Amino acid sequence: LPTTSNDGYTGTWLPATVSNTATGTYTFTPDAGQCAKTTTLTVTVQEPFAFTIFGDCVANQFVLTVQTSDSNLDLSNAHFQWTNNNGTTVGNDSPTFNVSEYFSSNTPNLPAIFKVKVTSSAGCSLELPYTVEQVYCQIQKGISPNNDGLNDTFDLTGFNVEKLGIFNRYGAEVYTFGAGYTKQWFGQSKGGSELPDGTYFYVIELKGGDTKTGWVYISREK
Q: I need a surface site. Which of 2, 104, 137, 156 has the fewest CB within 10 A?
């Protein structure tokens, strides 16, 4: 602590050094012969807090959520800043971040690191990273390509697809798309014509070597 005040009064502090780990009261005693009196200063040190980032699928969207059981952090009164790999702010003032929504307008480049900086109501901050390796959410069971804006395409945004193959019930491949697939299939064949309504089977090859298989139903009824 400084031994000379802004007004030029000199003296001593007891204790002379501020602790950054514990709340304390500090007393300034002016030197004799000055028109000054003893004063005190209380420095409150806020307790550190902790939190974790949890990633999970919510309504077929991969969402990151800040969670804590620490009584020193009230999430309802905290400030949040989410950033991407490049340090660009991608979300503010929410304990959740929708990764799938982010990738719907940004090219998926996995693994991707997102960070969240949480600032408590007392002004204390802590930043943690979360690495998104794959966005494995439930693959939709059907598409209805009727231009109503609902399930018009087979949306695999964020899955980091290397190859998609669509097969009919006889095992014949009717559609395929290579690396970079997101939601290009809307029930069309390799030649671009509409496939008949019905059940089709998919083979999805993911970056890293994983493969997912299953079925998807086409229904164009409005």
A: 2
Quote the CA–CA distance of 50 and 218 in Å, as a whole number.
47
φ, ψ dihedrals at 54, nearest 5°? -115, 130
Domains 52-132 and 142-218 share a fold: yes
Q: How far apart are CA 163 and CA 181, in angstroms?
A: 7
CATH code for the part of the protein at 142-218:
2.60.40
CATH fold group of domain 52-132: Immunoglobulin-like (2.60.40)
pLDDT digits (tens, 9 = 90+) for 138-167: 788 999 998 888 889 998 876 778 999 999
Q: What is the pTM of this model?
A: 0.55
Half-sphere exposure of 118 (CA within 13 A, CB side): 25
